[in-house]
């Protein structure tokens, strides 16, 4: 599995299972396609690093890329690469 540099990925959202707004939509309402890559990210709240898989999702006919994983039971963190950070 290929890992990407965590320094270019930015924290975009944290929330509970099913209740996260990412790219202006409830991201859990869309189908995620897992890629073969992952990224190491840093949770600044608790000072812990994680390795999250990278996904894509098609939202309003546009493909978005993001990394996501659980910080704890049903609490998700989402990270975006630099070209997705404008949302």
Secondary structure topology:
Elements: E1 2-4, E2 10-16, E3 21-22, E4 25-26, E5 33-43, E6 48-59, E7 62-72, E8 75-80
Parallel strand pairs: 1-5
Antiparallel strand pairs: 2-8, 3-4, 5-6, 6-7, 7-8
Order of helices and strands: EEEEEEEE
Q: How much of the sequence is in beta strands?
A: over 45%
Describe the global form: globular
* Strand neighbour order, sheet with most strands: 1-5-6-7-8-2
Detail the poorly predicted runs. none
User: Domains counted in the coordinates: how many?
Assistant: 1
Instruction: Give the class from helix and strand content and strand pairing.
Output: mainly beta
Distance between the termini: 28 Å
**Cα-based radius of gyration, to the nearest Å:** 12 Å
Give the helix proportion (percent range). Answer: under 10%
How many strand units? 8
Task: Let me know the average pLDDT.
Answer: 89
How many helices in DSSP terms? 0
